[in-house]
Specification:
The chain has one domain. Helix content is 82%, strand content 0%. The chain contains four helices and no strands. The longest helix is centred in the middle third of the chain and has 27 residues. The protein starts with a helix and ends in a 5-residue tail after the last helix.
Amino acid sequence: MVVGLFNTTLSFVVYRGLLEVGTPYLAAAPLAFAVGSLSGYVLNRRWTFAASDSTRARVVYVVVQAAGAGSTSLLVLLFVRVAGTGRVWAYLAAIPPVTIATFASNRLWTFAERG
């Protein structure tokens, strides 16, 4: 849980920073998600799942996180353009379902013990 909170906070801070320097929100969302994902691989592999590092885990993690970044971007777009939510609130609303989905995918697929 601590790892998830850290990565979520990190991605949110990066998102806000990117918005502050004029980055369009549709570019800022996947970039911020990617920053959280980079730290997430190391922290989740070591502490959350206590899994070994492997090429397979790295590749699967990238696939899962790419899907998460795409989902975050799509949700932010929908919240802003369809629901009329502000860019910051849209990101905050998009993160919980995507975080839960990527966590579950990583638990069941990326870092699952293969026999």
